[in-house]
Amino acid sequence: MNSIKVKLAAVTTILVALALITLAGLNYWQAEKALTLDIETELSMQAQAKGEAISSILSKRVSEVSTIARSPIVISGNKEAIKAYLAAETKNNPQYEIIIDVDDKGMPSIVSVATPIKIDGRITGVLIGAINIEALDKLITETKVCDTGYAYVLRGDGLTIFHPNKDFVNKVNQLTDPSCSPALKAIADKSIKGDTGIGRYEYGGVDKYVAYAPIEGTNWSIGVNVPVREATARMTSFTWTSIITIALVLVIAIIIVFFIAVRITKPLATLATAANRIATGDLSKSRIGIDSQDELGQLARAFETMVDNLHGVVRQISTSAEQVAASSEELTANAQQSAQTANQVAISITETGHGVDK
Prior knowledge:
This protein is 61% helix and 16% strand. By secondary structure, the protein is of the alpha+beta class. The protein is rod-shaped. The strands form two sheets. Strands 5-4-8-7-6 form a five-stranded antiparallel β-sheet. Strands 1-3-2 form a three-stranded antiparallel β-sheet. It has helices at 4-69, 72-76, 79-92, 134-141, 182-192, 228-231, 233-279, 295-357, and strands at 96-103, 112-119, 122-131, 150-154, 160-162, 197-203, 206-214, 221-227. Helix 1 packs antiparallel against helix 7 (233-279). It contains eight helices and eight strands.
């Protein structure tokens, strides 16, 4: 990894990847918060809507029974007439299983709506309409959230009275059943107290959201739940989309960074070649061929100026060398001439000495 191109591409790629991962993480966090809020809002709206629908049905039944209880036949106290009248009303109102008259001694424990029978302001009995719960049961059991989310209804003591799984109906009490987690028991306790809200619990190894709301006019409460995994399934799609997007952006970024790195390092390689050529004494090429206006272009022009200056220095040295050589030749010639003159003087002196001797 000695190449600047590789180093530059690697560092930039790492920085881009870190930035993208950080951005994706923040987006995922924000999206998860928004999705969780949407889920909670949707569940709460479903719970409240179903609770209001059940309350509306029961209120209507109470109103109908109250109207029957105010009938002169019922007020008359004539048992035979009341029995015949109620049988006719039951036939005319298929939403009731039976309508019965109970005296003031008590009434049976059944799913029903009831209203007092009053004569001169005194309660003389109770008129009970045993509701055909098929409509209520259908309203509850047909509630679907995502794939397996469902609705259920609890009585005031925590007993399950409506549930898609009939094995739970009138058998599972969320306040006392050992299979119910502490979180679910806490949610059940809040719901039967008339609170409205949303919670999270685990049942049967499945993590779930549940929204709960009271059913007005009764001591019942409704819950609508959904597995967390199903509720957040949209996050899986978002996650894969984010991963694919990051991968594509990263590939594009690597290509762009590599292209830029090549554009930057190519002039550097050219300058390195020129520097090596100059180091060997080759000044034959004064043009490097980098015409950019950035720092690399300035460096290339400085190299070219340096080569031109070196050319001038070499020419000066060459001229000086020629001059020195010429001066040396002249000095050599002068020395030779001086030597010849000295020889001639010596010869003359010798000849003069011989003449004196004679």
